[in-house]
User: Fold this.
Amino acid sequence: MTHGDLRARVLILAAVLAVAFAGLTGRLAWLQVVKRAELAQLAERQYSRTVVLHAQRGPILDRQGTPLATSTPTESLFVQPRSVGDPVRVTARLAPIIGLPPAEVHAVLTSSRSFVWLRRRLPPAVAAGVRALREPGLGFLPEPLRLYPNRELAAHVVGFEGVEGGLEGIERAFEGELAGTPGKAIVGRDALGREVAAPHMLEPPQPGLGVMLTLDRAIQYMTERELDAAYRRTGARSAMAVVLDPRTGEVLALAIRPTFNPNTFLDVPSRDRWRDRAVTDPFEPGSTFKVILAAAALEEGVVRPEDRIYGENGSVTIAKTTIHDWKKYGWLTFSEVLQNSSNVGSIKVGLALGRERYYRYMSAFGFGAATGVGLPGESRGLLRAPGRWSLLSLPTMSIGQEVSVTALQMVAAFGAIANGGTLMQPRIVRATFDAAGQEVRRFEPRPVRQVISPETARTLTRILVRVVESGTGHNAAIPGYEVAGKTGTAQKLDPATRRYSRSPGVLSFVGWAPADEPRFVMLVTLDEPKNEIWGSEAAAPIFSAIGRGILRYLEVPPRDALPVQIVTGPSPEAPAAAVTAPVRLVSTDGTVDTNGRRVMPDLTGRTLRSALAALAPLRLAVEIQGQGRVVRQAPRPGEPLRLGLTARLTLAPGTAK
Assistant:
């Protein structure tokens, strides 16, 4: 080999080494600079696992601050199968404590996965038992547990939370506010992928906002109590009651039967029970809708309260269809048309009003549109434009058929009449607040539109007071208070015949009290009760029972409370010994004895109206049997009265004493 050949070979080798070194340097630069972030993440995934932690949900409160839904800290148990020593031994010790089948536990302990949740949200005693085992591969991470301390109370409004968040009610509608921000925890691994470090918090979860509702727990409770009793007594398919403050649009109570316990929401026989029927299920309102017709006709000057309308002796034929009244009527004033719930009279008023004007007022009262209350699944109901009406549509809509409404739409519309003619948007949420209790957002009352004038509202209110005092709504009366309202008995379409069935459909009552200064407006409905056929018999008494409790709770004084004389000393004719007598309140109607005790007055021979007026200042619950004048009473005259006592009056035809 010549010197030149050797030199050439050295140069070639040097060139090869230089190229190799340059390639290696470029590769290192590519990995260290360009791919650095990506490779760092890959390396992190090889020695750690990120676990998402749910934040503590914000509480749901009633308007007084009473919790309706709350969260409590708990621990969830996870397994790192590769770190478990003897799966058979651990299974035998662990399964009885956590209450899972041994086969299921063993399958998790021998899983090929690196991280497995075994049981979420353990009770504290169970978590302590697992921790006492001191077995490697078992660990805990904090997770909140959602609780509903009042069980079924307001279940359809509050809703419930599932694994992925709120599923119904406020829990679903305000998921973004309630859920908070999830956190992260890290589980470490060695080079072989085995977990060697206990989990530690990377990003702590941030709690969600709280939600304060417009509901009042006390009003909700008494509403559910009375509705539940009627639902069971009548064997109805379902029942609803919605209570609203007509001045603000705030929903004070919303009760539905059948119901469920949100703590065990999966135990219900049918998921239909979860549905908030007051906003999701429209129904034909029947005779209660005659009030909407009356409001439109009075506002437009089509009719006056004293105008006389011929009842056609109980039937009228339109478009080859005969519509009947429940009773044969001759001449009636318009007030009496509503008072007696005459179909014929209402149809005549509807025909005089006309389809365009009637449709305009139905729309103005909010029918055919969602109320915007904010609850999930709200229905618009059904209100077709006049261009799609048949010849029979206007007459049937005048009596509450061929139109469907939700319970919330109906109570909001009556609230507009009660408050002087302004439709208020229903509200179910008052405010949201942070973990420190500071208000984040407030939802103020929002007027939607002026539907009728205050004068028309007052005129219609007086008519509806007479409906309760001496018409079909007499069972809705509340002693000591003026009640305005209307009964409804809506038949349902028979799917087989496509005609209205004669069987009981939706029986209802809508009204408010006190009539001139309303504190609440309420709708009560019973769907297909088995032993009632009229809204006046089924729904009106429920309204009375709930309304009486609400007025007492709100401390609204009776309108016709009787005067009380204060005796502070002797009269000129009194004996000298009376000077030392203690001060006493002496009633002028015999309801307080000489010792100052409340006693039962003598009601024998009185009319029902007179008897109720005498009992009004005593604020007793009253049960009535029969008609006519009082022939028997309990407690007997002069007996002392105690809180919560029910007065029972038996009436029969007779003469005054």
Observations:
- The chain has three domains: 50-213, 217-263+280-553, 564-652.
